Request: fold
Amino acid sequence: MRRGTWRSWLPLIFLILSILLLALHETRVLAPVERSLQVVLAPLQRAATALIRDIGDLSQTVRQVRELRARVAELEEQVHALTIENVRLREYEAEAVQLRGLLGFVEANPTWAFLGADVVGRSACIHAPCGEVVGQEPNPYLRYLTINVGQAEGVAVGMPVVTGGAVLVGRVVETGLHTSKVRLVTDTGHSVAAILQQSRATGLVVGQADGSLRMLYIPQEESVQVGDVVLTSGLGGAFPRGLVLGQIAQVVKQDFALFQEAVVHPAVDYRRVEWTLVIRSFQPLVQKEMGE
Amino acid sequence: MLSLYLVLPLLTAAALAQSTALAGVSLFGAHPDLVFLLVAVWAFLRGPIEGAIWAFIGGLLLDALSGGPFGGFALALLVAALLTGQQWGRELGSTAFQLMLLVLVGCFAFHITLLLALTATGYSVNWPYALSHTAGPSAALNALLAPVAHLPLSWLDRRTRPEGITFH
Reply:
């Protein structure tokens, strides 16, 4: 009888505990507990991911199919590398034009003192820890990845995460001992200052609820073409400049609006990202973003 | 006899599956919520108290694997377990129909609680899109999947019913 009475209070106790956990999470008191849970669950999650990959591989039993897949993957990698290289070269070309303009300005004003500076620093990812994606976000309303590098490898909150050379994946928002949670650029409300490679028009790329990207606040007078490459502009200091976000898929221009918008096709399918690089040497100027 | 030694691995495996294999699965915006299904069906079979125990354990496991607010999944699953563990709707028809109806309501409540937890903790939520493109379709999909989850869990229920869950 007593046992039954005690048990009947369990739902209420758990409800109060859950609300208490939510409140404590907000005050960051639970961070050590959450980190400890991650330490326990990360190897299990990694093993589960590996198991699922193995099962997927086993289903491809025909040898010829495997060889063809490997060949296609190799060619795709080459195309991808060449595309990235092409993007970089175009970026260098645009940079050269701008620098030439700056040089002309300096020559035109020989009495002034100049100090050359980037909008924000971009460091080469020499010391970038390579992270394997070990888990996806179970919450359907959030877009995060879990990678297998953390505080022990020198990862800190705010560090940008890239894949496929120069494609921006997101930024680190939480670190465990050997794992980190990465908020994807497609997460709702996650905004990245962006620039169009061809027209140099600037805007803000924002993640949408359906997992797509939208570039907002593009000035009306700018010419935006479908297929334009969208890069990070580095403005705001949250991300390095020149990382690839995607390509313009559709331009939404209304005569009465102050700005035009564009639908951006992401450069990678974020659900299929397996390997990432964390740019450890980049120091973000903005630690606290809207929505975090 | 069903003990926490069985519940914990079962829910851990389900949470891991949900954060790996099932995370990318989407059918017209609908996501199969494996942990929710286990909790909801168990609450249907054993009542809200045992459902709440499963909900709290499963919720904490999902919270640990999620980048969202810690406690959000636990709260959402508890609400779902309390709803699906009730007696209402049991005179409406066959067991499968009752289960599907309760899971439909429970899943929608689970998603709404999850969205409320996200909103309350400062996350950006597009309510109309979330309700129409994720919560609604997910509730329908999970209601359809509930009879499938019912088969193994009713077997487990029959095997363990006299003793119930124990804490040793």
About this structure: The helical segments of chain A are 2-8, 10-26, 31-58, 63-108. Residues 112-127, 288-292 of chain A have pLDDT under 50 and may be disordered. DSSP finds four helices and twelve strands in chain A.
